[in-house]
Structure formats: C-alpha cells, structure tokens
Amino acid sequence: MIQDIAPHRLNNQFIPGLLPSPGDYIILYQRDALAVDRLAQEEGQLVFPTFAAFPEADPGDFTYLFSLDERPFFLYLPPQPADLSEGPLTFLPFSELRSRDLYPREMVFAAYTAKHLQDWYRDFSFCGRCGRGAMEHSRTERAMVCPHCGYTAYPRLMPAVIVGVIHEGRLLITRYDRGFAHNALIAGFTEIGETMEETVAREVMEEAGLKVKNIRYYKSQPWGSANDILMGFYCDVDGSSAITPDRRELKYAAWTLPEDIELQPTDYSLTNEMMKRFKDGLPC
C-alpha cells in the first residue's frame, strides 16, 4: 500500500518555528494540483521543488509539515496563485497521482500526506466558532488558534471503512457512479455515535441491500486524498445474496470469482490489497 515505504520513514512530529533551508522540499498545491518537476513526472518520477526554487518568496509563507528520512517538507501558501507556465516546474493534477504508478513510493506517500495537511490548513484559515476573523498558527503545536475566542483546531481525521463482502467463494466488486473509474469495494464514512462494525453493516445495506455477519477486521490505512483513516473489514452475507445497488453511489455491483477480479492500476490502496488478497486465495 502507499504507506509501505520501508526502509524510508516519515516523521510527522511538528517542529514549531522551523524555517525552510535551500535544499528542503516544498509542497505547493493549487486547485488540487501539485507542483512537480516537469520532465521527471513525464518519465513517471515524482520530484518536488526545493526552497531554492522560490528565491523571492517570504519564508513566513511556508509551513513545516513533516520529515522524510530527516529531510524536511514545507507547505507553500503563496499570497497569490503561482504561475508555473514557464520553467522546470508544472502542476500535476492530484487525480493523476491516484491512477499513475509513480516512483519513488515514499514521495507519493509524502504527496498524499501533505494533501491531507494542506486541506486542513485551508479549511481552518478562519474561525468557525466565533466567525470574527483569521486563525493563527500555534507557536507550540500543530494547531490553528483563533486570536479572538481562543478556539484551537487540530488536524482532523475522518474514519471510514472498506468492506470485502464474501458469499460462496465470490467477492462483491463495485464501481463508483462518479470519480474513480476502476474496481472497488463497498466503502463509507462512520457516523457520529456508530462503531466501525455498525458502519460496515450499514454501508453494505445502504449500497448493496445486503445483510452481513462475521464482520472481521483486516488492516488500516491513512488515505490523505480523502482526509480519512481507512479501516478494512471482511464479512459474509447473512441471508439473501440478491444485490440491490444504490444507483446514487454505484454504477456497478456484482459477485465476482477470484480469477475474474480486475485489480486497480496501482497498488496504493487498501481496497486493491483486499481485492488482491481474495484473488490470490489468501485467508479473508
């Protein structure tokens, strides 16, 4: 999966007051596209610009994100949109990160993790409690603080489930009605006051009209593109196996034999690993 980057290591401990050095990597997202080296990405390699590529930028417009093998990454929040129409950099749409098998893997994981943090900083630029103005960066921790009412906002994770539903040697394969076009599994976000197991049962019923039993946890995954933490479960059908798909969510849903499962174009996702595990005949 995308987070499997060993022997490399991502350290997301916040370092207050750290400013970028010329060789530090810079994450610049603009309209859901990522600034990368133009020629490298054409060859399938993900190369980020360094701080040296922005000689006229104010260091105060950069926010420390994390380190990868001791090399810092900073988020660039320019006061005006950046123009990369000329020069060695270009904007790579985030949707291409999802569908292209780019390398090195640790840089792809860094891009996903940075996207999650970028979205959080963007969404908490202003106070949602008192509404009186802009939030400020905490000087001691990764948090945004309202100078008027004191409200402190921390990075948010949205829990969600991925569900492999099994019946008589077949796996329920789905495709979303919009967005990602490849094979997937039942998925959904946890509601307030709901256990993860209850989320599994509800989502399967809502999306496929099936009751399930023997719900068993498999593995989790940080998934920065949707700002969530995914938890994978397998389960079995309880009663009728007749699928009644929710056409608002799915355009396709069918029981599929292992040999007929078509995997996703990359091995980034927990969904793909769970489908592959079933396809390969491993315990589910």
Describe this structure as you would to a colleague.
The protein has 284 residues and is an alpha+beta fold. The protein is 19% helix and 30% strand. It has five helices and 16 strands. A hairpin with a 2-residue loop joins strand 3 (29-30) and strand 4 (33-37). The longest helix is centred in the middle third of the chain and has 19 residues, at 105-123. 32% of the residues are buried. The mean pLDDT is 94.
Walk me through the topology.
Layout: E1 10-11, E2 25-27, E3 29-30, E4 33-37, H1 38-42, E5 62-68, E6 71-76, E7 89-93, H2 94-99, H3 105-123, E8 136-137, E9 144-145, E10 152-153, E11 158-167, E12 170-176, E13 186-189, H4 196-208, E14 212-223, E15 228-237, E16 250-256, H5 270-279
Parallel strand pairs: 2-6, 11-15
Antiparallel strand pairs: 1-5, 3-4, 4-7, 5-6, 8-9, 9-10, 11-12, 11-13, 12-16, 14-15
Question: Concise description?
Answer:
This protein is of the alpha+beta class. It has 5 helices and 16 strands.
Separation, N- and C-terminal Cα atoms:
17 Å
Order of helices and strands: EEEEHEEEHHEEEEEEHEEEH
From the helix content, strand content and strand pairing, which structural class follows?
Answer: alpha+beta
Q: Report the principal-axis shape.
A: globular
Q: Mean of residue pLDDT?
A: 94
Count of individual beta strands: 16
Q: So how many helices?
A: 5
Alpha carbon gyration radius: 21 Å
* Main pleated-sheet profile: 6 strands, mixed
Q: Low-confidence stretches at least 5 residues in length (pLDDT < 50)?
A: none
Helix content: 10-25%
- The proportion of strand residues reads 25-35%
